[in-house]
Design brief:
With 477 residues, this protein is α/β, with parallel strands linked by helices. The chain folds into two domains: 296 residues, Rossmann fold (3-Layer(aba) Sandwich), CATH 3.40.50.720; 85 residues, no CATH class. It has 20 helices and 16 strands. The strands form five sheets. Strands 3-2-1-4-5-7-11 form a seven-stranded parallel β-sheet, sandwiched between helices. The longest helix has 22 residues. It starts with 6 loop residues before the first strand and ends with a helix. GO terms for molecular function: L-threonine 3-dehydrogenase activity.
């Protein structure tokens, strides 16, 4: 158990949108000493300077690729909140090796530090995953839960690294770890984002949003002594529940008044992005209550955080704003750029075909704004989910492997956290814990991060076939 006296919490990613909210909540607690990892180039930032003046805050200068600074942060820490990392859209503009070094290497460094200078039986590790790990889930498969197949959108190296990092944490051998997969997170700086990634998000896709406010509350809550032991060694979706489930066009209408005057429906992809409504997000709220602000609460408050000029210009000069946004869509990485340059691979991934894009109405009056079913539907995970992980037997593992088109080569099941040997439908052999496979939804480490394998995997795997509804994306990429 964590000591009832002052706890030391080591936080990465403190200057990000989620991290800043976590700092606010944690520094409000009298029983916590907050140790923050801060890159040298961040020290002159406004929020960094504020943290340096906060009572009970210790600064560790370094970064996630620096094992020595990670050890300094972990040494003596009761809880490690690993929020930091390179995220999209920034991650999409950096070399894949750089993103891997930070996101995968950072997780590896934290686990190694806990084993070297921490206590694998006592130190608690909270890892922040992402909804991007399960990829495109457009209706009718828009309801999801942990344990669903890992399925990464084409070109999403960020999701690849988060999947690999999650596996490092889950198979670390640390007694108290947890993976919390972040959904779309609404924060008050969203209006500043001006990147072609905005056109990758289907208008009729869905998100069960969380807010930066609630995510900060969650980070403080997981440090509490009242967190039940059953919470650890699990995977959870962070979401705001029923009150925060919206279709993307609803969020657009709520966040951009007059959007029809400055946007056109054919600028937006129809597939190959992530987002889902969660059938299981209430499970996290029940274990660690954190919800306070729904997405509608956020949308009501957001205008007060946007400068008046930024709110007025779209209303006064809609044609100018529309041209500026259209130019962004035509820039490298934007949807219109793919068609202007005849980029067949991206067209196939995000639209299916040029013909499918040409069929999208050019005006809003003709575009169908859909409302997918709000009745939760669950995917089949291929084993008896009423059996507690401690009671899993070899037959359960064999059934799950068969449902994934592969085999379990173990001779016994010695618990959910002891790796066993498997082989996938494409013949790759690998070791993985039953917990990561069954409750995390992971499968072959080679296939699950390579969308080029998805067509063949779906042919042989009833498990994966349930979510593979975009075969052209892999076949034509």
């Amino acid at each position: 158990m964590v000591s009832l006296s002052t706890k030391v919490v080591f936080l990465t990613g403190a200057t990000g949108n989620m991290g800043r909210e976590a700092v606010k909540r944690l520094t409000a607690k009298d029983d916590i000493t907050l140790r923050v990892l801060l890159r040298a180039e961040e020290r002159d930032g406004k929020f960094a300077r504020q943290m340096m003046g906060m009572k009970g805050v210790e600064i560790v200068t370094g970064d996630l690729t620096d094992a020595r600074s990670i050890e300094t942060g972990v040494r003596g820490a009761d809880v490690v909140l690993h929020v930091g990392g390179l995220v999209s859209p920034l991650a999409d503009h950096l070399p894949p090796a750089t993103v891997s070094a930070v996101n995968v290497g950072g997780a590896r460094n934290i686990v190694a530090a806990i084993k070297r200078v921490g206590d694998p039986d006592r130190t608690r590790l909270v890892y922040i995953g992402t909804v991007a790990q399960t990829g495109s889930r457009n209706a009718p498969i828009h309801w999801g839960r942990t344990g669903d197949p890992i399925k990464i959108s084409t070109y999403d190296h960020y999701a690849v690294t988060k999947t690999q990092a999650e596996a490092i944490v889950a198979e670390s051998g640390i007694r108290h770890w947890v993976s919390l997969r972040q959904s779309g997170m609404a924060h008050f700086d969203m209006w500043r984002m001006f990147d072609p990634i905005m056109f990758h998000n289907p208008l009729n896709g869905v998100f069960e949003w969380s807010t930066a406010n609630d995510s900060g509350r969650l980070m403080a809550a997981v440090c509490d002594d009242a967190v039940p032991d059953s919470f650890w060694r699990g995977f959870y979706n962070i979401g705001g529940g029923a009150a925060s489930r919206v279709v993307n066009h609803e969020f657009m209408a709520g966040s951009m008044a007059g959007y029809r005057d400055v946007l056109r429906p054919h600028w937006f992809a129809t597939r190959n992005f992530h987002g889902q409504w969660y059938a299981d997000s209430d499970r996290l709220e029940a274990l660690v209550p954190f919800r306070e602000q729904s997405v509608h609460d956020y949308l009501a408050e957001a205008p007060r955080h946007i400068p008046a000029l930024a709110r007025l210009v779209p209303k006064l000069l809609p044609k100018m704003v529309r041209k500026r946004i259209e130019n962004l869509a035509a820039a490298p990485g934007g949807s219109l750029h793919w068609f202007a340059t005849d980029d067949a691979a991206h067209i196939a991934a995000y639209f299916g075909s040029r013909a499918a894009w040409e069929a999208i109405p050019r005006d809003w009056a003709a575009f169908e704004l859909k409302q997918p079913s709000r009745t939760p539907t669950l995917l089949d995970h291929g084993y008896d989910e009423t059996i507690a992980p401690a009671d899993w037997r070899l037959a359960d593992l064999q059934d799950a492997a068969h449902f994934r088109g592969g085999q379990c080569h173990a001779e016994s099941c010695d618990g959910p956290d002891r790796p066993v040997d498997w082989s996938c439908a494409l013949g790759h052999r690998f070791a993985m814990t039953p917990n990561l496979l069954l409750r995390g939804g992971h499968w072959c480490p080679t296939c699950q991060i390579d969308s080029m394998c998805y067509d063949r995997a779906a042919e042989r795997s009833p498990f994966f076939r349930q979510v593979w509804t975009e075969p052209t994306a892999a076949a034509d990429a």
